[in-house]
Amino acid sequence: MSGLMNEYWLISAPGDKTPQNTFERLNQATKSGSDRLSENFKFNIPDLKVGTLDVLVGLSDDLNKTDLYTESIVRKTASTLEDVLESSDKGSFSENLRIGGDTPPQIYMQKFSWDLAKYPVKQPLRAIADVISKDVSHIEEELKTRYNKYNNLKGNLQQLERKATGSLLTRSVAELVKKEDFILDSEYLITLVVVIPKTTTEEWMKKYERLTDKVVPRSSRVLFEDAEHQLVSVTVFRLVQDEFKNKCRENKFMVREFQYNEEEIQAGKTELEKLNSDKKKKFGPLVKWLKINFSEAFVAWMHIKALRVFVESVLRYGLPVNFQAMLIRPIKKNHKRLREILNQLYGHLDSTALSGEKMRDMEIPGLNLTASDYYPYVFYKITLDMLDSQKI
């Protein structure tokens, strides 16, 4: 359906004879002639242990914090996966965000089913919330550890790669020269490598022999060049090398600190190969872990949402428990009209929620909602902007 928003509204309303009737009434109300204002889905929450009013009020506050925390871990896991995959294709990236291996997050929400094995309904609400919070904390801790190790490895590799491919002013000289370019093991002579701008090539050839005494005539050779610079060699007597370097600096010629050493050059190549190999070895397991734990965190998040809806519905609508939770996906162009319809359907539940200006300065004990988010019905917004909106 075109125009669907990348946003869901999770609401609940008291059972109208039966919860099924409540859902059917919503479906009828959100039809506007031949058009629809939204897609609607049942969000089935099992019969949970209610506990005392004091417990519910206290839990409401804690669930709000856990909700925000869990959502942050869902988003952090998704963004880390995107960073590790290094993909500019958002559509391709969103294909990696799946619940249980193959279910898109929005489909999981639309068909939400409480995980009875993981979160037994006989447990107190507080115990369920604590288990979820503990699981999410574990994901966050392991995410930091795994990603930091991978990121450090990646950073070291990038640093070496920049040295191998960057400007002649900074890149490694070892890859650009040969043994025969240097006078080695001489007591008196040393070969230096100098970076000169291409625009000063002629100037260099005129000047280098006279920058100091004891420069070997006609010893300069071009070893490598890029778009802007040339790497040249020059042989001087060791006793003038410091003076020669200073004169080069004065003339905007840059002497690179380099001594030809085959063992060090080979060690550099080996380190680069090792880092590349280590990165490849860690890439697959890290991507797999991120996919699995995005799924785990998202499932935990939806169960926290379910707990919040249950607790707030009991606080709002009272006992015995009789409400229907519903997931609404608004159609963008009908967003405002949909809100009006919901207020018409459920405005009688709490007339103060419709009083506009009067609500702005009002504190709502136990519900942890700002006045702008407070409606006559239980309401939570879920935004899936970590996904490609064109794909869902």
UniProtKB/TrEMBL annotation:
Keyword Ion transport appears in the UniProt entry: yes
Pfam families linked to this entry: V-ATPase_C (PF03223)
InterPro entries linked to this entry: ATPase_V1-cplx_csu (IPR004907), Vac_ATP_synth_c_sf (IPR036132)
GO MF, one annotated term: proton-transporting ATPase activity, rotational mechanism
Keyword Plastid: no
Keywords recorded for this protein, A-Z: Hydrogen ion transport, Ion transport, Transport
CC per GO annotation: lysosomal membrane; vacuolar proton-transporting V-type ATPase, V1 domain
Annotated family: Belongs to the V-ATPase C subunit family.
Subunit: V-ATPase is a heteromultimeric enzyme made up of two complexes: the ATP-hydrolytic V1 complex and the proton translocation V0 complex. The V1 complex consists of three catalytic AB heterodimers that form a heterohexamer, three peripheral stalks each consisting of EG heterodimers, one central rotor including subunits D and F, and the regulatory subunits C and H. The proton translocation complex V0 consists of the proton transport subunit a, a ring of proteolipid subunits c9c'', rotary subunit d, subunits e and f, and two accessory subunits.
Role, per record: Subunit of the V1 complex of vacuolar(H+)-ATPase (V-ATPase), a multisubunit enzyme composed of a peripheral complex (V1) that hydrolyzes ATP and a membrane integral complex (V0) that translocates protons. V-ATPase is responsible for acidifying and maintaining the pH of intracellular compartments and in some cell types, is targeted to the plasma membrane, where it is responsible for acidifying the extracellular environment. Subunit C is necessary for the assembly of the catalytic sector of the enzyme and is likely to have a specific function in its catalytic activity.
Protein name, as recorded: V-type proton ATPase subunit C
Gene source species: Biomphalaria glabrata
